[in-house]
Specification:
The protein is an alpha+beta fold and 161 residues long. The chain is built from four helices and ten strands. The chain has one domain.
Length: 161
Amino acid sequence: SQKVIANPNAGLDLIRKRPNFIEKAIKEAKYVDKFEIDIDNNCVLDLKLNKSNKKDVVERLNTISKISYRDNMQEAIFYYSDIGLSFYFDENDLINEIEVDEKYKKATTLGLKINDSMDKAFELYGNPKMKSSRGAIWSNFSILMRERQNEIKVIRLKIRG
């Protein structure tokens, strides 16, 4: 009988023949963290502004939060205070605003997070439509600042006309 010996370097030839193979594979792998605040796609946890509804929110938050609105579907706002997310609904029960506070530990896809400075928001997202010492508004999100401190306390996703 013939003994088969595994070649520990079997995949190296492929990599040697194709320079930048690993770097290219990593770039193309576009990993998306569903917990990130995705401003470009107007969503958090795959819950999307003007598309996801109350049922979607209840189902998605079921495994993440201790709070449930399953028996309170008539509410216009679902506050998940234990994880720092609030969802505001329109008359068709679609999400029209998502609010993120300091209990939500994830950043936006560009790296903006609660407690960051207003300047960091400008660096990452450019100049807002409006700004004051209390916050700033872009076309699809806004930030609110802590009183007398240059720290973001709330990030809000909302599409503005």
